[in-house]
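For the sake of transparency, this paper describes our internal protein records without simplification. Such a record has a labelled line for the sequence and another for the backbone structure tokens. Nothing more is needed to write down the fold, since each code stands for a local backbone conformation. For reference, a complete record is included directly beneath this paragraph.
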Amino acid sequence: MNLRVNQIKIIIFTLICAAALGLALGGRAAPQTENGLTPQEKNGKQIYVKGESKGGEIVALLGTDDPLELPAAAFTCANCHGLRGEGTKEGGLQPPPLNWEALMRPSTSALTRRERAAYTEVTLARAISLGVDPNGARLHPGMPRYVMTPEQMKDLVAYLRKLGKEADTDPGITDQKIKIGAALPLTGPLAEIGKDVKATLAASFAQINAQGGIYGRSFELVVEDSRGEPAGTLEATRRLIERDGVFAFVGSFEPGDSASVNELLKRGEVPLVGPVTLSPRPTLPPNPYIFYLLPTFNDQARSLVDFVKTKAQSGQARLGVFYSNSDFDMDALSGLRSQAKMYSMEIVAEQGYDAGRFSATSAIELLARTKPDYIFFFGGANDLNALASEMERMKFKRAPLLSSATMIGRGAFNLPESVAEQTFLSYPASLPDQDEFAEFITVMQRSRVPLRSPAFQAVAYAATRILFEATKSAGRQLDRTALISALEQIRELKTGVVPPVTFGPNRRIGSNGSYVVRVDPGNKQYVPLTGRLVPKDKP
């Protein structure tokens, strides 16, 4: 697009925007909700912070003679003028503050040294789209011009009226406190896990608060009973958002079916750090508000196939697999199939079953006919032990068993010794190390928190460490957008209880790969056989 067309487009948009603002605002603020921002102001905040809008793409124009067109998301207002409109130093320049009081009074530009008159809604729209101040003088060339619709301009100007004020503060945060929620099963069959995780979160919060919090703010934990099932988790999460007004979530227990809860968090733009779950269930594209810590069962299964590849003669192997019909186990099956296909490994035996209705006898019959070299099992500990006991009773030829330590839990230590010797498990968390776990153990002991659910408690503890680090990196002017941005910039963060965590704009699972361990039933412990195996994407 040439300069002439660009100029015409900008002028037309400027005139339309100015007229629309004069009619819509009439020099008055838009009607306000009792607390927070109106929907219009929220849309304006999206434009200010992210350069994005539901009303269509916004274009930033750089330069004057032959403007370069780029997405506004690459040159957001907040990047230069600050999340609170306070003004910043950017590339040796000093962009001015954009709070409403500063705009509505005469000023001298720190960049051009020229005096300007006070802005009005109309001249502000002209400055944003045409790049001239109220006096008609050209703004500094470093200031982009933005091409947007009249509605988008109205939304942005409406938000600028509230920028940096109390109404622009996200729920659950004050100068003294940050309110954090967790939906946990405090009743029902998972109540012991829920209570252990709650105690772990409280202990970690107590430690950071005793140190003065972060930027003078203490952390307050608010917990609602989720009963450990999808409907209860949705109810508890909604109460924490709508009634308790939490700023963010940490360590909430995620049941198998969490789609409704995750959609609620996405609609409300409320971050959740470190869900406590057997296996993440990420979507494509990933939910931008949920930050998982450990790999999925899908990736764990892929790592196990990589392990088999290193052990099998000529790199080939015949595989057998048994799996329950749960979502978690089907996720592992999907990972096994994809990785086996990549290596051209043949799955010669495959049998699914309804949870609680596993038949060890029919499984042995299938294995006897097909004779796989390795047997994968994706189900519960009782079913795996039933298969192992039948293999022992029938003196079945010893083919190695492979599964996930997260699926099987301590049930792995009940395997017959002869079968346990040939059992290999993926282990996604950090292997316990006295030095690395020292702080975690100290915090738990100081608060007298029993380690009855160590795997879940370790994830919850790690989630708080990540939350604290991101809060610190986000700075004093904290909001949800700043927190998410800080989380996305975390690289190889060590928490002491899970492997180093890395997030990014399109990465919402902090740690990839798993160790492979064997079972030592006598000492009831896992023995590491490999370093951390990140599943390969090509042979």
User: Anything to note?
Assistant: Residues 1-6, 8-34 have pLDDT under 50 and may be disordered. The chain is about 40% helix and 15% strand.
